[in-house]
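REVIEWER CHECKLIST
Item 1: Sequence provided? yes
Item 2: Single chain? yes
Item 3: Sequence as submitted:
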Amino acid sequence: MANVSQRAQSLGTENAFIVLAEVNKLIREGRDIISFCIGQPDFHTPIHIQDAGVKAIREGKHGYTPSAGIPELRQAVAEDFSRTRGIKVVADDVVVGAGAKPFIGYTILSTTDYGAGDEVIYPVPGFPIYESQIKANGAVGVPIYLRESRNFSFDPQELADKITPKTKLLILNSPQNPTGGIIPKKDMEAIAEILRRHPQVWIFADEIYGRLIYDGEFVSIASLPGMQERTVISDGCSKTWAMTGWRLGFIANKKLAPYFTTWITNTESCASQITQWAGVEALNGPQDEANRMRDIFHKRRDLIVGLLNQVPGVSCQTPGGAFYAWPNVTEACKLIGAKDSEEFRRRLLNEAGVAVLADIHFGPRVDGDGQHIRFSYAASDEAIAAGLQRMTDFINKNRV
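Item 4: Structure as written out by the authors:
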């Protein structure tokens, strides 16, 4: 019988979708579930962006485009990156893809060689596709730990200690999934100073939540001296404009742009032309709705953090960005006799009808940091209040 490759067998996944399947199964069985497990805005795409997509369809703009994207969108991205990062980006440096996620793999493919022992440093806890793509593409993953004591940033000295001659890529994500943490400017400057001593290291700057900042400031490492030429700036439309299903992402890097274009030609051919025209409108059109959604997320953050800190055995730092809360449930696990956060998550879902993700869905637990779960607060105020009340009742009912 024909065998499946080791590469395919080792490929990881995004556990949010696995838990979502569990949730949907329970809902089909008639269970009342309040879900905080999926990281997507619960808003409709703004009407003017929808209209731009419809207009593209009506005008026959639904065929292939150049693999790098339509010129109008590449120019819009270049202008946006230049304005928001305080750097000079030109359209030729920009490549458009079917979502930002494919560029994780394309970057690893373009900066490491399969089986050569090339190392990629990536954040833990972190977006699980980082580790999955590192393994699948034959590189060596080197985790760097985001610690609660540092507001879920990492110690730059730890980065310095982990870089070796084999290090080829550093993945940065700020604001972060799953913690909502932000790398502060002083740490970003320290990271840049360390990297100046290691010119062989590329940077993948995952900035998909860059517009969803509530405290502090957004700092792109590409804006710091000497960093732009070696940084792949990655962003997209999914989070800011509630366009997850439209699938539109983009990167900028002068040297790697031609290689990313070739990867796209070899895989997806091009992003949907319809979506690309909607993306032009998202970037160039009115930002009132995007700002309104951000303001609502900000209020929800304050609501959910306040309520979480009232739940028995739970403590939660205030995340600076994105739409995730990362509460510590170490004591809550002890209160109900759960061995860890995953058991806590499963029981919370099946006994209380509240769906969250556990820390192990985002990499190995950080030594000394205890147990955590992730809430996506892309949910209504009513759902947040009801879900946290259910969680409180669940813990009180099951105290051992």
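Item 5: Key structural point noted by reviewer: The mean pLDDT is 96.
Item 6: Recommendation: ____
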